[in-house]
Amino acid sequence: MKEMQGKVDIYRDTPVRYLGYANEVGEAFRSIVPKSVVWSSYIVASGYVLADTIDKSLKTYRDNINPNATKNVLISMTDTLLWQSFASVIIPGFTINRICRAVQYVQKRNVALRNRWIPTIVGLISIPFIIHPIDTAVEEAMNMTYRKWIGYYPK
Question: What is the pTM of this model?
Fold first, then answer.
């Protein structure tokens, strides 16, 4: 993971980063827990996204002494919010949901595989394998779109 200006970024360089993936765990358990548990996992992940957005915005505000300070804070805030929303909540949640649904589909056609824990186990095992490819894909997508349009590339 990246370090921000020589300092450890607790939201991206420590285990706190995994709070952003709480919704993936919720999605993995979707077939065996109440929907309220799944939605609660999205609340945790969204709280992580908002905390990181606020943290990056405040750091940009404190470090900015030029006349474009407000603009720079807004750009930093929107960049973090977009990146975290896609890389931590939207894409991973959708991916794990589809993986678990695919397992359930296979289970319906194969009596030997019918066990309510199999989609959950496959979903949980999938999480470490999708994290870095999704982070990289979101980073590249933002570099080619949003960041290119506004002329902003974070350090």
Answer: 0.85
Residue 32, token pair as written in the block: 């065996």
Q: Which two tokens stand for residue 145?
A: 């779109």
**Strand partners for 7:** 4
Per-residue pLDDT tens digits for 78-122? 999 999 999 999 999 999 999 999 999 999 988 887 899 999 999
CB 118 within 8 A of CB 103: yes
Q: Rounded to a whole number, what is the distance in angstroms from the first to the last CA of the chain?
A: 13
Total residues found in the chain within this entry: 155
Token pair recorded at residue 37 = 């548990």
39 Cβ contact list (under 8 Å, min separation 6): 26
